[in-house]
Amino acid sequence: MPKITKFSKTQEILDTNDWEGLRLINEKSKTTKLVADKLSKIVKRLLSKSEGQYNIDDFEFLVTDEKDTNAFYISDSKTKNNKHIISVSSELINFCNNEDEFAGIIGHELGHFVYDKLSKSGQNTVFQERGSDLHSVDLLIDGGYDPLAYENIAGRLFLRNRGNILESLGVHGSSFARVEDIRSYLTYLKKEKGEFQQSNKFDASNWKLFQKQFNESFTSDKFQSYLDQKIGNSDLNPENLGNSLKIIFEEMKSGNIEISSRVLDLKSKLDLFHENNRDYNPNKEIADKLQNIAEFIINKNPDKQLFEVLDRLYWINNKSFSLFGEFLEIADDMQKFIDAKNITYAENIAKKWDSLKISKFQPYNRIFDFPSFIMPREEEAIGKELPYKKHKEWSNNNQEIKRFLKNIFRITDDTYLNDNYLTQTKWPDNKSYNYVLGDDGNIFLTGQESIVYRNKESEKSSILSNQKKSKENHIRFTNQLDLLNALVDFDNGNKSAADFWKVYNSYYEKINNQIINMNKKIIIWLLIPKHMINLPKYQNL
User: Fold this and answer.
1) Which of 35, 45, 156, 245 has CA 20 to 30 A from 460's CA?
2) DSSP secondary structure code for residue 134 in this structure
3) pTM of the shown model
4) Strands 84-89 and 59-64, how do they pair?
C-alpha cells in the first residue's frame, strides 16, 4: 500500500483507520482548538452529574472537513494514547440551529462512551445506537439543556432523506424507528417527571457567533485531500479536466489512488463534474484520456469502489467506450454468432466462450457497445420473423448454443414471443411509444406514463406502510423499555431470575421470537456485565 500523507499527528493514533478518509483537520489548527474548547465545555455539562467518574482529560476532541452531517466516537481501547475520541464534522456545526441541538448529538456519542464502559465489547449494535439516543435525552436534562432539542435535530438528521425513512441503515437501524423512540421516551419522561425545567438558557446569538468564528477559521484550515494537493482545490470543470485526468492517470499507474478514501474522493470529484456539466461532450483528447483510465481500471479487475469510478468516467464520456483486447474479440464473435447461417458455425463460436469467460465481460455491458439481437419497432415488424428465431430452434437440440444464448443475450425458454409482432390487443391511439407488447400478448406501460403511475403506487404504499410502522414502533418501544428496566432490576438484585425470565420471554414472544435460536444466557451476560451495580432505572443507563 502506498504511503499515506500525514496531515495530523492525531491521525497516527489508530493503526486500522483510514485517517485521510476521515478528513481530519490538524489538531493544532485554530479551527480544531475552537471546536475542542466548545466540545469540552459541553461534555462537562452533560456529565455534570457523573462528577468523579470521568475525567475530561481522558477525551480528545477533533473536527473533520466532511460534507455530511456527522459525528463519531472512538473508544480509548482502540487508540494508542488511551484517549476517547469525539469528533464532529464541519457540516454538523453549521447544520445545528443552537447549542442545545449540538449538545444532543454529543450526548448521543457520549452514550456510546457509557455503553463501551459497561459492555467492554467494543462492538456497536442497533441496541447501543437506540440506547444512545435515549441516553442523550437524559444527559441533556442533566446538563441543563432542552431535551426536546434532540428530537428536533434527530428528526431533521435522520429523516432528511424522505424516500428512505424505512430503509435499514445497518447497525444504526431504521431512522424512522429511532425518531419514534426518542419521541416516545420524551413522552414517557414527561408522564413520569412532569414538564422539563431547563436550568440553563443558552443564548442563540452565542451559537451564531461560534458558527461565524468557526467558518472564518475553517476557511484557512480546510482539509486538503491527496487529490486536492495534486490537481488543486478547484472543482473539476471543462477547462481543467484534461490536465486533471492526466495527473489522475499518472497517480493511478503509480499506485497512489488505491486507498479507499482516495478512490471515494475521486468518485466524488467526478460526480460533481457530471452534475455541473450534464451536456458535456468531450473532444478527442479528453475522450482518449477517459478511455486510457477506463482500460487501466478494467485491467485491474476493479472492486466495487473502482467500478463506480468507471461508471462516472462513462457518464462524462457521454458514449460507450471503445472495445479493446478480449472485449473486442468477444464482440466480433457475438456478431458472427448473430449472422451465422448454419448450426455448426454457431456452435463453434459458442464453444469458444464458456460461462466463466463470459462472466468476466458481463459487468461491462453498459459501458461498451456490444452487439445484440435488436428487436424492431412494432410498426416495422408486423409479419416479420424475429431475428433470433432460428437460433432458438437450433438450441432445442444443442446445449452449447442454448447456453450461449442465455449467458450472452439473456434469451432463454422463458423469453417467448410470437413468431411476429402481430398484436393480440389493440394499441391505444397515439400511445405506441408509451406502451410495449408483453410476451403474453398484454400491453404494458412504459415511458413517462409508467413512471407517474409507479410513483403514485409507491407513494400510496409508503403512506400506509409508515402508519403501520409508527404504531408497531410505539408498541415495540414500550415493550423494550419494560425489558431494559427488568435487566437493571435483575442486575441490582431487585428482581429474581425467575421473574426476569418471565419478562424476557414475554418480550421476545411479542416480537415473534426474533432471537429464537440464540443462547439466552450468553445474550444477557453480553448486555449486562456484572460490574453494572447500583444503576438507577433505564433513563440513566
Assistant:
1) 156
2) H
3) 0.54
4) parallel
Predicted local distance difference test score (pLDDT) of residue 399: 93
In DSSP terms, 62 is beta-bridged to 87
CA distance linking residue 368 with residue 322, whole number of Å: 7
* DSSP β-bridge partners for residue 89: 64
| Nearest to 46, CA basis, from 142, 116, 111 | 142
Q: Strand pairing of 435-437 and 84-89?
A: unpaired
Torsion of CA 412, 417, 419, 425, to 10 degrees: 180
**Residue 456 pLDDT greater than 90, yes or no:** no
Higher pLDDT, 25 or 308: 308
Phi, psi of 26 (to 5 degrees): -50, 135
SS3 content of the chain, % helix, strand, coil (to 5): 60, 5, 35
Helix orientation angle between 175-193 and 447-492, rounded to the nearest 10 degrees: 40
Q: Give the count of alpha carbons within 13 A of 105, CB side only.
A: 26
Q: Residues for the chain: how many in total?
A: 541
Taking each continuous run of H as one helix and of E as one strand, the counts in the chain are 22, 5
Q: Side-chain half-sphere of 117: how many Cα atoms within 13 Å? A: 14
pLDDT digits (tens, 9 = 90+) for 402-427: 999 888 887 766 554 433 333 333 43
Three cell numbers, residue 445: 406501460
CB distance 60 to 35 below 8 Å: no
Quote the CA–CA distance of 24 and 20 in Å, as a whole number. Answer: 7
Q: Which amino acid appears at position 455 of this protein?
A: N
Which three cell numbers mark 406?
442465455
> H-type helices in 396-446, by residue range?
399-409
SS3 of residue 88 by DSSP: strand
> Which residues are registered as beta bridge partners of 85?
60, 74
Residue with the larger pLDDT of the pair 80 and 3: 80
**pLDDT digits over 114-169, tens only?**
777 665 555 555 567 777 888 899 999 999 999 999 999 988 887 664 433 333 33
Closest CA to 412 of 448, 441, 388: 388
- Single out the residue of 130, 220, 222 nearest to residue 178, CA to CA: 130
Residue 23 to residue 250: CA distance in whole angstroms:
23
Q: Is the pLDDT of residue 351 over 70?
A: yes
Q: What are phi and psi of 368, to 5 degrees?
A: -115, 150
Contacts of 178 (CB under 8 A, 6+ apart): 129, 130, 133, 154, 158, 172
More confident site: 194 or 403:
403
Pair 90, 218: CB distance under 8 Å: yes
Q: Which residue has the higher pLDDT, 405 or 79?
A: 405
**Distances from the Cα of 519 to the Cα of 9, 111, 390, 510, angstroms:** 44, 26, 60, 18
Among the residue ranges 292-301, 394-403, 469-478, the one predicted with the least confidence is 469-478
